[in-house]
Write a structure and sequence with these properties.
mainly alpha, Arc Repressor Mutant, subunit A, two-stranded antiparallel ribbon, 6 helices, 50% helix, 5% strand
């Protein structure tokens, strides 16, 4: 699995919206500025996330985007799949986008690729944006020690 720029920007945008969850809509320009994402590119990404049911948009002067569900209910794996497709390194190892391979019955590598997919999805599907917000908040409260 390789995370594309779209996947990276999408996870950063969803994390930003997660940290602002419950405060109302967030404008694209604010996200773009604070996350260093080109505005036009971010518009495409947010539209994709909206069409996938992860975000809701509101038009008008006070318009913008907000999460369709609480951050504790949105996994990193879900966002990555929307932007980049399967987490598996090859199609025959994918759980959600499986495609049969003619070499599958005798392939000596499929087990390895299944293990890789399992490790990746095990992490990304069990980590929510709520978890990430808590981790950031905890890290920011920890005292800094200098030696």
């Amino acid at each position: 699995m390789r995370l594309s720029t779209k996947g990276e920007y999408a996870t950063r945008a969803v994390l930003y919206l997660s940290r602002r969850h419950g405060t109302g809509t967030v404008q694209i320009n604010e996200i773009a500025h604070n996350e260093g994402i080109p505005t036009k590119y971010l518009e495409q990404i947010l539209l994709t996330l909206k069409n996938a049911g992860l975000l809701i948009s509101k038009k008008g002067v006070k318009g913008g985007y907000y999460l369709a569900r609480p951050p504790e209910e949105i996994t990193v794996g879900e966002v990555v799949r929307v932007m980049d497709g399967p987490l598996a390194p090859i199609r025959c190892a994918s759980e959600k986008f499986y495609e049969r391979c003619s070499l599958e019955p005798s392939c000596g590598l499929r087990g390895l690729w299944l293990e890789v997919r399992g490790a990746i999805s095990g992490i990304l599907d069990n980590r929510t944006f709520g978890d990430l917000c808590k981790s950031i908040d905890q890290h920011q409260r920890e005292p800094m020690y200098y030696i």
